[in-house]
Specification:
By secondary structure, the protein is an alpha/beta fold. It has two domains: about 60 residues, Double Stranded RNA Binding Domain; about 80 residues, Arc Repressor Mutant, subunit A, CATH 1.10.10.10. It contains six helices and six strands; from the N terminus they run E-E-E-H-E-H-H-E-H-H-E-H. The strands form two sheets. Strands 3-2-1-4 form a four-stranded mixed β-sheet. Strands 5-6 form a two-stranded parallel ribbon. Helix 4 packs across helix 5. The radius of gyration is 15 Å and the shape is globular.
Length: about 160
C-alpha cells in the first residue's frame, strides 16, 4: 500500500507518494497527471499523509527559505547510469547549478550530456533530487518536467537567477 498526499506550493499542487517512511514519487502539477504516474508504481494508493510528515514539513520550510537540504529518506529505481545521474544531482546545494555536461563528466561519460538530460526527465523526485539546478553549458535552462516556468521560479527562489 502506498500513501499519497497533496502539498500546496506557491506554484500549485505538489503530490507526494511514499511507503514505509520513504518518499517514492513527487509530481508537480494537477491531480490527473499525478494519478496516471502513481498508478505505474503498481500498488494500491491510499490518500493519507501517514509516513509523509517529514517531506511535507521540509517542503514548507523550503518554500519559506528555511531549508536548503532535504533529509527525507528516498527510494529510487532505475538503471545504473540513471541512478548515477540522480546521485550526482542530489549533491547540488541550494543556489548552486551544474551543467548536463559536467554531470556526464563526473560520471566518466563526457559525451553523455543528452543522456543526463533524459535521465533527469525521468527524475521521480523533483525538488528532493534538485534537477532544476542543472542547466545547459551555454547558460540555457534546458527543460523541466513541470514546465520551464516552475524551473525559473525555483532558480529565482534559490537566488540563482
Amino acid at each position: 500500500m502506498l500513501n499519497y498526499t497533496r502539498f500546496e506550493s506557491p506554484l500549485g499542487p505538489i503530490w507526494l507518494v511514499g511507503k514505509g517512511g520513504r518518499l517514492l514519487m513527487v509530481h508537480l502539477g494537477e491531480e490527473e497527471g499525478f494519478l496516471k504516474k502513481a498508478q505505474r508504481l503498481g500498488d494500491e494508493l491510499v490518500e493519507s499523509s501517514q509516513g509523509l510528515e517529514l517531506p511535507l514539513k521540509e517542503l514548507d520550510l523550503y518554500f519559506s527559505k528555511g531549508l536548503e537540504t532535504f533529509k527525507t529518506p528516498i527510494e529510487v529505481k532505475g538503471t545504473s547510469f540513471g541512478l548515477g545521474v540522480l546521485y550526482e544531482v542530489k549533491k547540488l546545494k541550494w543556489g548552486e547549478v551544474s551543467t548536463y555536461k559536467a554531470i556526464a563528466e563526473r560520471l566518466g561519460r563526457p559525451r553523455a550530456a543528452r543522456a543526463v538530460g533524459q535521465a533527469l526527465k525521468r527524475n521521480p523526485l523533483p525538488l528532493f533530487i534538485p534537477c532544476h539546478r542543472v542547466i545547459g553549458i551555454k547558460g540555457g535552462l534546458g527543460g523541466y518536467s513541470a514546465g520551464l516556468e516552475f524551473k525559473i521560479w525555483l532558480l529565482k527562489h534559490e537566488g540563482v537567477l
